[in-house]
Design brief:
Blueprint: H1 4-10, H2 30-33, E1 46-50, E2 57-63, E3 66-74, E4 78-82, E5 90-91, E6 101-106, E7 114-118, E8 133-136, E9 144-145, E10 154-159, E11 167-171, E12 183-187, E13 195-198, E14 204-211, E15 219-229, E16 232-235, E17 241-245, E18 253-254, E19 265-272, E20 280-286, E21 290-294, E22 302-305, E23 319-322, E24 330-333, E25 337-340, E26 348-350, E27 357-362, E28 370-374, E29 377-381, E30 403-404, E31 411-415, E32 421-425, E33 438-439, E34 449-451, E35 458-462, E36 468-472, E37 477-480, E38 506-508, E39 516-519, E40 523-526, E41 534-535, E42 568-573, E43 581-585, E44 590-593, E45 601-602, E46 613-619, E47 627-632, E48 642-646, E49 654-655, E50 666-671, E51 679-683, E52 686-690, E53 698-699, E54 709-715, E55 718-723, E56 728-731, H3 735-739, E57 748-750, E58 756-758, E59 781-787, E60 795-800, E61 806-811, H4 832-836, E62 848-854, E63 882-890, E64 893-903, H5 911-953, H6 960-981, H7 999-1010, H8 1019-1056
Parallel strand pairs: 58-64
Antiparallel strand pairs: 1-56, 2-3, 3-4, 4-5, 6-7, 7-8, 8-9, 10-11, 11-12, 12-13, 14-15, 15-16, 15-17, 17-18, 19-20, 20-21, 21-22, 23-24, 24-25, 25-26, 27-28, 28-29, 30-31, 31-32, 32-33, 34-35, 35-36, 36-37, 38-39, 39-40, 40-41, 42-43, 43-44, 44-45, 46-47, 47-48, 48-49, 50-51, 51-52, 52-53, ...
Helix pairs in contact: 5-6, 5-7, 5-8, 6-8, 7-8
Length: 1072
């Protein structure tokens, strides 16, 4: 039982406990990353907003015979592990430089040995590259990079069941260009060295690899010739084929026996039955391909199923897995997860939480137990697929863009790959950000999402094929408002009137929220929220027809607009000057209009790589002629970063990438709305910051996993990033970054805080270990300061009101702890923490950057350590909105900065009503402080009496017995008064159910009632306080009488008996 209503009323900040592992392992500080130059902001921390919904997963693995332990690898979300059967997942890879995972293998002979291959191998248009192989020997706690760095995409890992040092790897190689580090590799020393044992050419990689469960020397490998281009995808060619080795990879033979498809081959999936090693299945992309079966180890083949259901989109799927015990049972993974129990002739769909399936691990000891990977995450079954674990506990969503609205608290918007659009609260009024705090807003998986500025309940959202929807949350309806609703699905770009890219741009005018822009090869504009659209430009691309043909082949075509080329990829209206609009294309052109689209001028920088994509342009709000362009050329196998700046409407451009890692190609660049010299860049390898308008960059990674950052934006005082693999994150309160490098110029620097909003937050109990909710920022004023060196003595922080009066005092010096009455064995020493979580962080001061949050409250009243209170935590009263100062003092030197506290703008409470509340709360605070101070003195006195009685019992003094009786009588009187003020027997969390609460606790409850909302107090609250205050006064009068009469009498008797123990009052009475 818990005092729920009281808890929800009184707790100031009640946060669900988020696992520290989930928020990212402590990364190397920014200072060390940047050679020390970032030390002054190194204690800032990114906060995971969510949503907690899985993204695309390719790699899954379990531990044979262990029903609780599994692993998965996100397409760009790192390695995760569960030890409770999928209830909670913890990230293992956050400290690594690479988060794109293609394969995971646990050594069958030692479950502590885990191999990971990076780089996803289902080559979507948004593929993230890898950097080779990793190994853990402690179940994923620590990792070592073990080579194959240039492989970029690793599809499979197979470990010898008897010797964990013998490892085989199927490497696909570079998705966007030829390279030699591809094919099948073998290591016999646990990854220290590698030998390439199967290789065709530098255009062909290995996409599948299986080991005969009965003979580890027999392997089957599928080679796959494939390549992505910005405008095409090649799936198949003379390099593709199926191979077999019977000597542990030393030699290989291509399997081309009777029944195997002839001609050009594409992607191939292969599986070997665990119960019959001669039974081999192959799923083959070919003109006359399909599911083939061999009953003689691959010598001859029989076509058993040629349905397109199991071989559609072969480049993305073509996954097949054999049951380890039933010869005729196999699984084919495509848009559905399908199972056959008759050797592949017929299939039934196994219902799973999401579609588009890529991986399956089946426990060789119990085939009912499996883990499946799909475009929505990883999911576990223990009953053969009848039921599955949830996928809403994995924050691995891949977002393309980020936007925010203007409500309080603001919401964050984006489109999740392989899922829906999302609008999610950036912070909430309850303990955490849960699934109830986000919703879909129309559109689709790939587009921009733009809230309508005057009304955030109206949202415009895009998707592929040029789709734009207008979503109205009030009505729940979503209207298609496409500029040209002629669906091009399956057609090449040349067949369409308008070429809309997979993530075609949508922009809203900064000056007129009814004006929207959309991009094909031209720029469209609507001034009536999508009812009418008009092209306002000519074709702003290179319009190269050779790059607009049907994508895919030579076997299977695949046209979804991912490969649509020669399109407008960016539209950026200037917030500084109406009529200035920047537009840029995915084929490397930049145009600008200064007359609202009547005329356009090409202003492409000379330093652009040819045919590169302008992934984003940020139009400065400080100067109309200034813009920043992020250039992405990775789809031509060029990972170098490119950022350009112009200050003259594009007549000249200046490259600004110094300090960004050589392989961190750039997705986005943004200028801070307040400090024009402060820039942020989102790259494939994380976030960077520049304090000098782009001349020099340094990492802003902090605790953020090194995932692709597809977009970022500054909203008010927060920097929000759309990661393509780990959902939305926020770097709250970036004021220190705005002040810049000046912070490190002296011995200390106190940064100016952002506006602190007085809000109420509560709800929910503490749930230790739960790891699938987003985190709220701390409630209060965030105060940052920098120290050149650690202080040699105490440091203090004082909060002063407008009149200079101290409202709150913090110090690094810890006050002496009051004496506690001894507790019985098993009693809690801190019961408040059980209900309310840990107390507010203590003020500390260390060398470097320091961040502290003041909870917008005054000092707490006195409390009695070790005693449980019911329904509340002893805390100071909330301060009134207004102007304050923060004053930092170290070694006699002080710095002060203004600090403004504002009331929650959603409230209608008047200043007078807040004053009434504050006045009554202050009187109650004084009563609580007085009650607990005197109760502590009573406890101290009774402890002295206990000590006296013990010494008298050991004494031979003839008056000892009489003195003991006098002391016992005094103790009884003190106990009676103490029991009026506090409940001395209440130590455990629910002891108050057995031992009734007393005056101090009742007063604390009334204080919680008065402060339960930002409103005038009720008349009954004042009446109850008056009653309790009167009772307290009466009790303390008794106490004062005891001190002046009974204690004095006992002391006189002790002195007369020459015992040598004279009682001194335990501190001054409260109020004296």
């Amino acid at each position: 039982m818990r005092p729920l209503s009281s808890l929800l009323r009184h707790v100031g900040i009640l946060l669900v406990v988020i696992s520290s592992a989930l928020m990212g392992q402590e990364a190397q500080t920014a200072g060390s990353q940047a050679g020390g130059s970032g030390a002054w902001y190194s204690a800032m921390r990114w906060r995971l907003i969510g949503p907690f919904r899985g993204g695309r997963v390719l790699a899954v693995e379990g531990v044979a015979g262990d029903p609780l332990t599994y692993y998965f690898g996100g397409a760009a979300g790192g390695v995760w592990k569960t030890t409770d059967g999928g209830l909670n997942w913890m990230p293992l890879f956050d400290s690594q430089d690479m988060q794109s995972i293609g394969a995971i293998a646990v050594a069958p002979s030692d479950a502590n040995i885990v191999y990971v291959g990076t780089g996803e191998y289902c080559w979507r248009g948004d593929i993230t590259y890898g950097n080779g192989m990793y190994k853990s020997t402690d179940g994923g706690r620590t990792w070592t990079h073990i080579g194959l760095r240039d492989s970029e995409s690793i599809a499979k890992i197979r470990v010898n069941p008897a010797n964990p040092d013998i490892v085989y790897v199927a490497a696909m190689g570079h998705p966007f260009g030829p390279n030699p580090e591809r094919g099948v590799f073998k290591s016999t020393d646990g990854g220290k060295t590698w030998q390439k044992v199967l290789y065709k050419d530098d255009h062909t990689g290995a996409v599948d690899l299986v080991m005969d469960p009965a003979n580890a020397n027999i392997l089957y490998a599928a080679l796959y010739q494939a390549q992505r281009l910005p405008w095409d995808f090649i799936s198949g060619g003379p390099g593709s084929g199926l191979y077999k080795s019977t000597d542990g990879g030393a030699t290989w033979k291509q399997l081309q026996g009777e029944g195997f498809p002839r001609g050009v081959l594409g992607r191939i999936g292969v599986a070997v039955s665990g119960s019959d090693p001669e039974r081999v299945y192959a799923l083959v992309e070919a003109e006359h391909g399909g599911l083939l079966r061999s009953d003689n180890g691959g010598q001859t083949w029989t076509m058993v199923n040629s349905s397109n259901e199991y071989r559609q989109r072969a480049w993305y799927f073509t996954h097949i897995f054999a049951d380890p015990k039933a010869t005729d049972t196999l699984y084919v993974l495509n848009t559905s997860l399908s199972r056959s129990t008759d050797g592949g002739r017929t299939f039934t769909v196994v219902r799973a939480p999401h579609g588009d399936h890529h991986g399956l691990w089946i426990d060789p000891r119990d085939p009912r137990r499996m883990i499946n990977s799909n475009d929505g995450g990883a999911t576990i079954t223990t009953d053969g697929g009848k039921t599955w674990t949830a996928q809403d506990n994995q924050p691995t969503a891949q977002f393309y863009h980020v936007a925010a609205d203007n409500r309080f608290n603001y919401y964050v918007y984006g489109a999740q790959q392989d899922n829906s659009t999302v609008a999610i609260a950036s912070r909430t009024d309850h303990g955490s950000i849960t699934a109830n705090d986000w919703y879909a807003v129309g559109g689709g998986e790939s587009g921009y999402v733009i809230p309508y500025t005057p009304n955030p309940d109206v949202v415009y959202a895009g998707s592929y094929d040029g789709l734009i929807t207008r979503y109205d949350k009030d009505t729940g309806q979503t209207q298609d408002v496409n500029p040209w609703p002629d669906n091009p699905m399956g057609h090449g770009a040349a067949d369409t009137k308008y070429r809309f890219q997979w993530t075609a741009p949508i922009a809203i005018s900064p000056q007129d929220p009814n004006t929207l822009y959309h991009g094909a090869q031209v720029v469209f504009r609507t001034t009536d929220q999508g009812r009418h659209w008009t092209p306002i430009s000519k074709d702003l691309t290179r319009d190269d027809k050779s790059k607009q043909q049907s994508a895919g082949g030579p076997i299977t075509k695949d046209n979804t607009s991912v490969e649509y080329y020669d399109t407008v990829f960016v539209i950026a209206p200037s917030p500084a000057q109406k009529g200035v609009i920047w537009a840029a294309s995915d084929d490397g052109l930049v145009h600008v209009t200064r007359d609202d689209g009547q005329t356009w001028t090409e202003v492409t920088p000379k330093g652009f790589p040819e045919w590169s994509t302008v992934s984003q342009i940020d139009a400065s709000r400080h100067a109309a002629g200034t813009a920043y362009a992020a250039i992405d050329n990775h789809r031509q196998d060029d990972f170098k970063p490119y950022i350009f700046k112009t200050s003259d409407f594009g007549r000249t451009w200046h490259a600004i990438t110094n300090g960004i890692r050589g392989n961190d190609f750039v997705h986005a660049v943004r200028q801070d709305p307040q400090n024009p010299r402060l820039l942020f860049a989102g790259t494939e390898g994380g976030v960077y910051v520049s304090f000098d308008d782009g001349e020099n960059w340094q990492p802003l990674q902090l605790n953020l996993p090194r995932v692709p950052i597809y977009d970022l934006m500054v909203k008010d005082d927060d920097l929000i990033v759309a990661t393509h693999g780990r959902a939305f994150w926020s770097l709250d309160d970036i004021g220190p970054l705005r002040e810049g490098a000046q912070a490190g110029g002296g011995d200390m620097h106190l940064f100016k805080p952002a506006v602190a909003w007085r809000t109420r937050r509560g709800g929910g109990f503490q749930i230790p270990g739960v790891a699938h909710v987003g985190a709220n920022p701390p409630n209060g004023a965030v105060i940052d300061f920098y120290l050149k060196s650690a202080p040699g003595g105490p440091a203090t922080l004082d909060i002063l009101d407008a009149n200079g009066k101290t409202v709150r005092h913090f110090s690094t010096e810890r006050p002496p702890q009051p004496r506690r009455r001894p507790q019985a064995a098993g009693e809690f020493s801190s019961v408040e923490e059980e209900f309310f979580g840990p107390p507010p962080a203590r003020f500390s001061a260390r060398a470097g950057f320091n961040r502290f949050t003041w909870d917008l409250r005054g000092d707490s009243p006195a409390s009695v350590p070790g005693l449980a209170v019911w329904g509340g935590r002893s805390q100071g009263i909330a301060v009134l909105p207004g102007q304050y100062q923060a004053k930092l003092t170290i070694a006699g030197k002080s710095e002060s900065v203004p600090l403004e506290v504002k009331l929650d703008p959603r409230l209608k409470t008047t200043t007078e009503e807040l004053r009434q509340q504050h006045e009554l709360a202050g009187r109650i605070w004084e009563a609580i402080n007085r009650a607990n101070t005197e109760a502590s003195r009573m406890i101290d006195l009774r402890a002295q009496i206990d000590d006296l009685e013990y010494r008298l019992a050991q004494s031979n003094n003839p008056q000892a017995k009489q003195l003991r009786e006098q002391a016992a009588a005094l103790d009884k009187k003190v106990d009676a008064v103490e029991n009026l003020v506090v409940q001395p027997r209440s130590h455990a969390g629910e002891d108050p159910l057995n031992y009734p609460i007393r005056l101090a606790n009742k007063l604390l409850d009334v204080l919680g009632t008065v402060e339960s909302a930002d409103a005038a107090p009720t008349a009954q609250s004042a009446a109850v306080f008056d009653m309790l205050s009167g009772e307290l006064n009466a009790a303390l009068q008794q106490w004062q009488q005891i001190m002046t009469s009974d204690v004095a009498a006992l002391n006189a008797a002790l002195q007369k008996a020459n015992v040598g123990a004279l009682f001194e009052p335990a501190g001054k009475p409260a109020g004296e």
